[in-house]
Design brief:
single chain, about 450 residues, about 5% helix, globular
Amino acid sequence: MRLLKLSLATAVIGCFGVANASDSLVDALTGGKLNGKVQATYVDQKDETSSVHDEELLGVQFELGYTTGSFYGFRLGVTGQANLLPINEKKKNNTMYDKEWRTEGFTLSEAYIGYMINQTDIKFGRQYVTTPLVAGNYTRAFKEAFEGLTIRDKSLPNTTLIGGWYYKFQGRSAVVSGHKNGHAPKFKDKTIIGGMGPVAFKFDNIFTGAIINEPMENLKLTGAYARVTDLEAKPSAKGDINLFLAEMNLKFPLELFSLGFDANYKGSRTTDTLDNLNYEGDMLGFRAGIYDLAGFNASYAYTTVSDDDALLFGVGNGPGSYTFLPIRGPFVFTGFAGMDTHKFILGYDFGAIGLNGLKTSFQYVKGEQDAPNVNAGATKKGERMDIEGWAAIASYNIPQVKGLSASVTYVELERENYDAANKVTKTDQNELWLQLGYKFNLFE
């Protein structure tokens, strides 16, 4: 019904344009931007502690988006996504990738009307969303999207104000929202809550607001709030979720390199019977680094979470933490109750020696969890987990062909899970991604 209303509104605007300024309307429609991407992805995940968990896929992803030029401040935008699986997984009954890569078909992820007045941009309809606490994840076969309203205003000096209201969500696969395994995702009144697991939960509304201020050069301050109403995590756990973020990013450019310091606070609060799940966690994060030192970048980050409550990071799989491991993401350990995580990164940009576009990164994480005194999120009372992992990444934006890129990512994560009797169970997950992509703009 809401999409029907959006279509009718678009038609009315179009009719007005034809009657009053047909030449300008033609210019707006033909003077837009047509962007696209084609990407081939090979993924292979193994659990070295289990012979069952071994899955590989080869998929081809397509994305094509068109945005019209401005017509009295209005514009239209549409983006479609598709994924094909020429070679499916070795084990047909495996579900390791059912929420990420083993999903096939087409979905219209963006279909919005936008309006720009002065320095205020308004978008209504299906759209990609990247706000501090409500954000989609763009690393799998399908990018996540939301349906609703986004407002961004830059009228104040050095300040960006963001407001959002959303009532539908499109995940990374159909199975995320409870639909048939292997199919393309659909928009539903179910949403992912970062830190509450990989599946979506029924909700009523998502509201968010943020302020991003740069009071001086190289300093950025961010404050954000989000609320999810009437979320149904399970029949016995329903209520609202409140999410909070405060962050500072500071950079000191020096003669030979730059120093960077970051700090943030994230918090989540619940109401009604959602309180029984103990997701009222707080996270403090710190990061310090040396950047652009003859091509090298190095940083250390630390996050800590409150003892008896797990953290909910945000809405969608986009919000993260300073200490997440690539591919594994922030939700599988960094937000657990009582978790202290350390992360080291060493990167090198080969552009410093003339190989423009080639970058590498080595990342190492280690975390230890204090056993909570209650069932807290995904951790049961008295249980705890220690983790250790690393990732090696190489990416190459091939300068000979504009828009062509290649990347390889390899990740290992070992976990030691201790039960209340201190009995340990070990897991060892390894995952490899190989990707080759081409981005293009047909009107450039």
